[in-house]
Predict the 3D structure of the following.
Amino acid sequence: MLTKAVLSVAEITRILDAARAEAEQNKWAVTIVVADDGGHPLGMLRLDGCAPIGAYIATEKARTAALGRRESKVYEDMVNGGRSAFLSAPHAVSLEGGVPVIVDGQVIGAVGVSGVKADQDAQVAKAGANVLAA
């Protein structure tokens, strides 16, 4: 039988706090979503000034990173590289800003961020996802 770590409320809070600090330090109005390894949202924070659609997009970025076990940017790069058929893949958003949370080599969840430029979304998501490794 295999065992794996799972995200608890304590870890979800740490992830949201680290991502929020990164966003606020840069004055970026974003939505941050933490999902479990099945892509189900566990926590969300929409900062003041972020458009409501950010909540939907951040959730989908987190879901994509969790289910795919890789950054959502990988899928964006595939589409931008000419693999447009990937746009029809179910449960996958081809937008940068979804980052898996990895503990002991296992993906146990993901962080999705939406609200600013793609690389900035990813920067905030990585700040959250990497807090457990520190």
